[in-house]
Write a structure and sequence with these properties.
Layout (H helix, E strand, L loop, with lengths): L5 E3 L15 E14 L2 E14 L3 E5 L6 H8 L7 E5 L9 E4 L11 H5 L1 H4 L6 H13 L15 H13 L5 E5 L7 H18 L2 E6 L2 H7 L2 E5 L6 E6 L13 H13 L3
Parallel strand pairs: 1-10, 4-8, 4-9, 6-7, 7-8
Antiparallel strand pairs: 2-3, 2-5, 9-10
Helix pairs in contact: 4-5, 7-8
Bound molecules: adenosine-5'-diphosphate and magnesium ion.
The site of magnesium ion has 2 residues, from helix 1.
């Protein structure tokens, strides 16, 4: 496995240390994944070894096709690794997970409120308290007043907000985000990123964000993992000790330096 240098920047005051001394919610123990296809085998991931602390925000950046989504699918149990394992710690099973994908995956025939409480609807029926909770989450992600609308009536950014609200419905201990803001225009994306940071600071869940955007990773994460082109391996990890909320340091030299250091490690 490649060495994983941890590059620390000097703490810039008011550091928001969340996971210090906490047990990891998950450990990735040498995960490799090989797909057998008609046109041959594809080695998607190789020897991924890392962990996510309780309340820690981790971002993964890497070139297209390097196995990022595969890694996330392994964490949700949608794929099995060919080697290595996902260790969920003492409990031995996954904690409460919330997942948002690149495509919003809202059901077009349901209202936003119903989409947000879909995890409950899938178990049977939703109560007044569930509806209340869905409304609270709509408020949290900036969708108040749109609860009764259908997805087709919302902009792309609003649909992504709804999919994040749905991912939060289960009050996840680990939130998995697979490039959920990738298809949005730059301004909308910046706003949603800032809102995501605010929500995470309020709720303190662990998060794994997969993204193409280095600045989004540095804005949100406590730690950024850089992956190589396929087969995806971890080539570097960067600890991000910038103060939060980071909206206030987006234009700072420290922020820019971290982005350029990460870019140098990426084979785009
Ligand atoms: N179910 C599958 N069957 C075969 N190949 C797959 C499957 N899923 C992903 N792959 C291949 O694995 C590699 C990594 O894919 P993916 O995890 O989607 O990359 P990323 O999200 O980093 O763009 C790609 O070459 C992709 O074609
Ligand atoms: Mg992907």
């Amino acid at each position: 496995m490649a060495e994983t240098p941890v590059r620390a920047v000097p703490p810039a005051g008011n550091v928001h240390v969340l996971n210090a001394g906490r047990e990891p919610v998950v450990r990735l123990e040498g995960i490799s994944k090989r797909f057998e296809t008609k046109s041959g085998a594809v080695q998607a991931l190789e020897g991924i070894r890392s962990s996510i602390g309780a309340g820690e925000f981790v971002a993964v950046v890497g070139p297209s096709g390097c196995g990022k989504s595969t890694l996330l699918r392994i964490l949700c149990g949608l794929e099995q690794p060919t080697q290595g394992k996902v260790d969920w710690g003492k409990e031995g099973h996954a904690p409460r997970l919330g997942v948002a994908f690149q495509e919003h995956r809202l059901l077009p025939w349901l209202s936003i409120e119903q989409n947000v409480m879909l995890p409950r609807l899938m178990q049977g029926s939703a109560s007044a308290a569930d509806r209340e909770r869905a409304h609270g989450l709509c408020r949290l992600v900036g969708l108040s007043g749109f609860e009764k609308r259908r997805p087709a009536e919302l902009s792309g950014g609003m649909k992504q907000r709804a999919s994040v609200a749905r991912a939060l419905f289960t009050d996840p201990e680990l939130l998995l985000l697979d490039e959920p803001f990738g298809a949005l225009d730059a301004l909308t994306r910046e706003q949603i990123t800032a809102d995501t940071e605010r929500i995470w600071m309020e709720r303190q869940f662990a998060a794994l964000l997969i993204t193409h955007s280095i600045s989004e990773a540095v804005h949100l994460a406590d730690r950024v993992i850089v992956m190589s082109a396929r087969p995806g391996r971890i080539v570097a990890e960067f600890k991000i000790d910038l103060p939060r909320p980071r909206t206030e340091v987006l234009g700072s030299p420290e922020f820019g330096k971290l982005c350029s250091d990460i870019r140098k490690k990426l084979e785009l």
